[in-house]
Amino acid sequence: MLHNKSFVKKTRAGRVMKQVREHYLRDDIFCGAPFCKVCDTSGARLSASPSTILVLDTNVVLHQIDLLENLAIDDAVVLSIVLEEVKNKNLSVYNRIRAICSNSKRNFFVFSNEYHRDTYIKEMTGETKNDRNDRAIRVATQWYQNHLGSGVKVLLITNDKENKRKANEEGIHAETVETYVKSLDRPDLLDLLVRPSEDVDMEEVEDLRPSKRKVIYIEHKPMSEITSGLHRGIYHQGKLRVNRYNPFEAYVGSESIGDQIIIYGRSNMNRAFDGDIVAVELLPQDQWQEEKSLSIACGDEDEDEDVHLAPNSADDAPRTIPQQGSSGEINAVSSRPSGRIVGIIKRNWHSYCGSLEPMPMPAGSGGIVHALFVSKDRRFPKIRIQTRQLENLLDKRIVVAVDSWDRQSRYPSGHYVRTIGEIGDRDTESEVVLIENDINSRPFSSQVLACLPPLPWTVSSEDLSNPIRQDLRNVRVFSVDPPGCKDIDDALHCTALPNGNFEVGVHIADVTNFVHPGTPLDDEAAQRGTSVYLVERRIDMLPKPLTEDICSLRSDVERLAFSVIWEMTPEADVVSSRFTKSVIKSSAAMSYVEAQARMDDSRLMDPLTTDLRNMNSLAKKMRLRRIERGALTLASAEVKFQIDTETHDPLDIGMYQIREANQMVEEFMLAANVSVAQQILKSFPLCSLLRRHPTPTKEMLEPLLRTAAAIGLHLDVSTSKAMADSLDQAVGDDPYFNKLIRILATRCMSQAVYFCSGELSPPEYHHYGLAAPIYTHFTSPIRRYADVIVHRLLAASLGIFKLPSIFQDRGQLTSVSDNLNYRHRNAQMAGRASVELHTLIYFRKRPTDTEARIVKIRSNGFFVFVPKYGIEGPVYLTTRSEKGGGEWYIDEQQQKIKKIDGSISYSILQTVQIHLEVVEPQPNRPKLQLSLI
């Protein structure tokens, strides 16, 4: 059946055109019930004998997704009109409801009501789109009841009073979410409900914890007023970033004034959360920049809003620093704009991990109890929830979601989502790391696993005879990776040629031979974006059969690869380069330590060791040439743990050691990435996925220059080449001096990001750190989805395969690159959080005295770096009671903090002896405390 939908559309030229869209209606769309006597039941998803089938309206899906994810809610129909509306309003919830519907263990069925002849409805004159959608939901619910008969109850779940009233008038069974959940006799499920803010008894909740003063926030401006204010320059838009060490200090990067606007205190933050897109109004200039923002904080965050902890990196907070005045007081050297938030443009609320604030058990049991949830991440305020299971939650890590934040309330309101596990348990705390960083660690679905070839897998005769694939099994290929590496996605070869040159190859796992566009496997990899490496485990982007077997370039097995092959002179000049799909058979899978030992052992003269030495010789020349072009050799405080194989607890901790073998592999991976970037950009100038590293601004480099000047070191940062030369010359008696300077330089850099080549001009493609005009990621497709995309681009550029349709849609490509950047950053943050967690576990029973270097001065202490363990943290010189810094002041010029009587001073990069010990100043928030010996 064909139904024509017509509507008018205004063109850019102002003409009004009538458009007609054909809408096909069918009578072969089935209901999904296995007991139905009319429909084909082969694709049935509902259970065999349900007492009730639920039909969910849009707002229930949007607001009660935490409840719907609970296994107790089952036998539900999700209408296509509901899915479409949810997709338009909240993509995150849409993905979650789609995941439920595609889960074979859940009885959720998607019914295409908009294309069914009996459930499609035409729009009525004067009817709003929302009213039409509500009517369509009621019509579909009525159809289900008539279709399935009296043997099963079909129940519309809606919290919309008007929709419920009309449903009852039309003879449709309809209930609110709360009424239905109560009928299940599962009190714990009631904790999952999102309640409207008007249902909250404010007086009862605010009595939870007496405060020194009533906090009342200003009302958020309506969007119409915000939009007008942004156009007139009264308000400024940007993303709120809360200082991760001080929840009462935040900043908003504003393009309209070209600077960061500093936000001090909860009142000025006005109920905004970290990550919210906000509208900011500047405060009068005499209220800009106060000294307190640069102090290191200590004490309970709720006792005083004027506590502050200095940031740990260039991205965490404003870079203004106080200066010593003639009286020894601290004065601000430059004013930075300060402001207050007047409206929320886009919320960034999600689920938060933490625990309930300890409280006595109320008399009686089983009733509703109001409690305060404390997030593990200090950037987020406490959240008030109500629960019927207080006794079971007090010693647990739990997940809580935010529902609302009333302007009369000190804290936002939320609801319990689920329990993670016992506080302090390593597995529980590791799960917290994953949730806080939005890492998908769920097992791969049956649909994804169905995309994999059967095991055992071997290279087939068809692969070997395929004209697109070169047989390189006779080439002496080897891999060099971290110890214990199982997901080997790169291998190398270096063969001496008769003319005195070398044939050098980089062979990368041919992942796209198994991951095809548009499949569930590809969709899952695109969503995950990257593998995540924690201290004790790896969370894969692709299923293990691919990562550790089928695609892994293990030794002595034939594997498919995508190869970049150069002919190079002994001076590492490239004579020619080519790209080919290939078949290889690796002769050795070595660790960095093993490869280094081979190269260093003068007694070994076998062919493999000779290849390693030749390759290392080429790599050194390539590296030197790259540095001469201006590439930076930076450093980071990478930590390596020795883990107990049975308990998974850390046995030892230390700085990660970089060897020549590491640098050799890195050099050829960089070269392969650059060669591939040149190839794909030449073929697809508008839709190539590249990676750029923006040049740091003068403001970003300010902390580094200030530190260098204080120790009499001149750094030229006019170009990356000048900076690289300056860093090379920054040497001192201290063996850690140069590494510390390079770590400080690293923190001044911006993040490298993926982008679509058509979005920017070629000068903006530049990768500052590598001094490369173009760069991409090609060498790790097992663990990065960006590389999968680049493999497809490279194959298309060689005429091997047709370019997938997604590359024709620049908007979709931009969305993919945005997700890749988000997932890449989250994976980094999760890795760091895992290191912090295991550092706490290691030092919990090992109080330690050690040596440290001062890397940042603040008005009541300083930050130190501990080279032996790769740890950084604050050391306090004053207590909370010593207002204004006590007996200490900062000598800005010399970057020193001195006692007023001059008896003691501490300066930047000075060596100090410190004591490391795990303490718990606040319940359930253990931390590593660093104190002077």
TrEMBL record:
Main location (coarse class): nucleus
Pfam families with a match to the protein in the record: OB_Dis3 (PF17849), PIN_4 (PF13638), RNB (PF00773), Rrp44_CSD1 (PF17216), Rrp44_S1 (PF17215)
Organism encoding this protein: Lupinus luteus (European yellow lupine)
GO MF assignments: 3'-5'-RNA exonuclease activity; endonuclease activity; RNA binding
Family statement: Belongs to the RNR ribonuclease family.
Start and end residues of each PIN domain: 52-165
Domain RNB: 469-800
Name of the featured protein: Exosome complex exonuclease RRP44 homolog A
Higher taxonomy: Eukaryota, Viridiplantae, Streptophyta, Embryophyta, Tracheophyta
